[in-house]
Amino acid sequence: MTGRPKSLLGICGAVFIAVGFIEVAGSLALKAKYPPTKQDIPLTPGQYVPLVETGKGVPPLMHGEYVNILFNAGAREPSMYAPGEMVNEPLNADYLALKDFRIENYPSGKISQYVSEVQIFSPFTNAMHNASISVNHPLIWRDWWIYQMSYDPSVEKRTILMAVRDQWLPLAAAGGVFLVLGSLLFGLTSFFPRPSALSAESPFEEQTALEERSPIPGIICGLLAVSVPIFIIGRSMLRPDPMPALRSPLMAPHVASYAASYVVLLFATFGVGKRWMPFGWFLMTLGLVLGALWGKICWGDFWQYDPKEMWSLATWSVYAAYFALRRFRVPEVVLRYAGGVSIILTLTWVNFSKFFTGLHSYA
């Protein structure tokens, strides 16, 4: 009685995952061919930049040939808000001005946050919008994302912002939603009873059941999977003075999803609770997508080709191949253990090796 809904969930989940993967991969390919607009903006209080539409006689700043908006950065007087002072400026633009910049510190003296107080003035509506931009809190204005990146210590109160206009973001976001929903549907198949020998999912289902009588290796690896992420969290999220990039509400669910998935999948590597592997993979997918979302909010892009990002994707892909080929004895065993080895390497080498330096060097 449980076979039909389980199969239906698995099929629907696989379709959603395939669609999501195609959308995300397609957005990355399009971004490589037609890069989004990105511009670093160094500003001191009283300076502003127009967000200039191309056309109407305004020459574009070209990154390839597909950019249709540019930043014409430069120092101006704060009187930008007086209409008479703007006659020599492009009139088909919104303006971003810096009011103030400050660095916040912990009691220990370490930097806790960079904060830029800005105003956006729109000549179209004669309206003015006040906002704060800080690490993990970008300003979203129309189709621009404006990030607090750093500061220039050689100039008093000089902030360094970055503006990004990513025309492929909706496609990538839709792909992320499909990946999470598809892996969730697929993961729900774990809650159905294990099929009997007569309706086994593979010819060797009965043989692999014998492995579940020896849980000790899986328990040891499971404890390893729990202890290492807790150590990483203790070093970063739970420390009294984490760096600004780690001060995000996505930190806990991102790390927790990965940690839980490692526990489930490492147990299953040694035959303990193999029926929960689809749910473990859902947790891994959730951690991957949450990390991509966090990257977009913090760094300006959901995928940076960082070494640890690529390793996580490779581990995820090993398990994707496992589920596609698990009806066959040799690929099932090889991929199951390959996935377990990838996780163990993640916990014991990738997270600590200097070889995997990059944006994740703090974790």
Count the strands?
Answer: 9
The average pLDDT score comes to 77
Spatial separation of the terminal alpha carbons: 46 Å
For the record, the count of structural domains works out to 2
- Rg, Å, rounded: 25 Å
Estimated structural class? alpha+beta
Overall morphology: elongated
Strand arrangement, largest sheet? 3-2-4-5-6
Low-confidence stretches: 53-91, 196-213
Helical percentage:
40-55%
| Quaternary structure of the protein | single chain
| Annotation field: number of helices | 8
For the largest beta-sheet, the strand count, sense and barrel status come to: 5 strands, antiparallel
Helices and strands, in N-to-C order?
Answer: HEEEEEEEEEHHHHHHH
Report the portion of residues in β strands.
15-25%
Features:
single chain, 363 residues, alpha+beta, Tick-borne Encephalitis virus Glycoprotein, domain 1, 44% helix
Structure description:
With 363 residues, this protein is α+β, with helices and mostly antiparallel strands. It has 2 domains: 37-165, Sandwich (Tick-borne Encephalitis virus Glycoprotein, domain 1), CATH 2.60.98; 194-356, no CATH class. 44% of the residues lie in helices and 19% in strands. The protein has 8 helices and 9 strands. The chain has helices at 3-33, 169-187, 205-209, 216-235, 251-269, 277-299, 307-325, 329-350; strands spanning 37-43, 48-53, 69-71, 93-105, 111-122, 127-134, 139-141, 144-152, 158-165. The strands form 2 sheets. It has a 5-stranded antiparallel beta sheet with strand order 3-2-4-5-6, with no helix packed on it. Strands 1-9-8-7 form a 4-stranded antiparallel beta sheet, with helices on one face. A hairpin with a 5-residue loop joins β8 (144-152) and β9. α2 runs antiparallel to α6, α5 packs antiparallel against α6 and α6 runs antiparallel to α7 (307-325).
